[in-house]
């Protein structure tokens, strides 16, 4: 299931997140592979994007706001469990040609057991790069601050960016304790 939040993340939160690009070093994203000895490795053609991990330390207000939003919408996704973040949030930057092919945020060997994925669009001055789902009629992210939440086993992708730069924030939630 997929649902769009009733309201957008505030402009001040969007600016705060984008400001972290100057403070947190980015790296080329790999594809998580539980069998890889180094944990993350690159799989040619699967994903091309730069990511930054946003630690909870010094960003509690942002974490609390996203936690409040996911709690408010989790019943629409059929999730009744008490939730917690499964990892730090990820700030993803997609430039022209960057993409993430069809995938799910869980796997058979997923030790995190993610239940809900959340994506926040941070910029809109790009072409292509749409977050897409295989589920017909899925909501679209159009304006900075738009939020979509979905069950982590939903198949989705980020289409190749054809112009500009797409920035988004991604968070994942799992059953607490």
How many domains is the backbone divided into? 1
Give the name of the CATH architecture.
Sandwich
The helix/strand order is: EHEEEEEHEEEEEEEEEE
Beta-strand content estimate: 35-45%
Unreliably modeled segments: 33-42
Number of helices: 2
CATH superfamily annotation: q2cbj1_9rhob like domain
Structure class: mainly beta
| Silhouette | globular
Written overview of the protein:
It is a single chain. The chain is mainly beta and 177 residues long. The protein has a single domain (2-175), classed as Jelly Rolls (Sandwich). 13% of the residues lie in helices and 37% in strands.
In short:
The chain has a single domain, classed as Jelly Rolls.
Structural descriptors:
177 residues; mainly beta; Jelly Rolls; 8-stranded antiparallel beta sheet; 4-stranded antiparallel beta sheet; globular
Question: Layout of SSEs?
Answer:
Blueprint: E1 2-4, H1 11-19, E2 27-28, E3 31-32, E4 40-41, E5 47-48, E6 50-54, H2 60-73, E7 83-85, E8 89-94, E9 99-103, E10 114-121, E11 126-128, E12 131-133, E13 147-151, E14 156-158, E15 161-164, E16 166-175
Antiparallel strand pairs: 1-13, 2-6, 3-4, 5-9, 6-8, 7-16, 8-16, 9-14, 10-13, 10-16, 11-15, 12-14
